Amino acid sequence: MKAKWIVGMLLSAAVLVSPLYASDDDDKLSYETLVSHIDSVSSPYVSGDYAVFTAEHNARFVGIAFDYEDFSVIHPMQIRTIYDYDFEPVDSLYFYILKLPKTVQNINYRLVIDGLWTTDPLNTSRTYSRQAGLYLSHLDVSRNIPAVTEKINSNTVRFTYRGARGQQVRVGGSFTNWDSWIYTLTETAPGVYEIDIPLAPGKYEYAFYTGIMSTPDPTNPERVYTADGKVASLLIVQ
Description:
elongated, mainly beta
């Protein structure tokens, strides 16, 4: 069973994905800041919305695969060279920075070192997989994730409003011809209101309504002026 599982992972992990950061400027800055602070190998750690993994530079290739992707993708680690004050190279290491998926609170993973699957030698936290018959390295990434308006699948956006409890909250926008009485949100937690709406790719202006008052989405920083001069939120569905 163990051998078949590893072979299956190797065959299914034929696609290699480069560890590129998101195009957003804040994400790019956070990524580059994290890279600049990696000066030695260590056990994996969480910094904000990112997890940082390192490995010794004593192999030709080191990759990492995660359980939430069913180990179907091997992400290659990159090489970082460490320099002294005279800008002379003194050391090097492998690293991989993961932008944490919002729905993931625990990560189990395996390394691929020169074609061989293994646990992370720098991480003492491990969990045993009965299905695979072997150990997986474990990283606790539990954190408080506030609900925000976001695309939840290929054709659906979850609109989220946070405010006082017990309100009737509606959403309207360019996708309803600014009719605010079509969609009413449900209070899914105290003061948290949500509704899932199917939307095709495109740009949409919208706002939330309580009574006759409209307000931009407090979870979305993108703002626009509507044709009648009001401030609304801008949502880009890709």
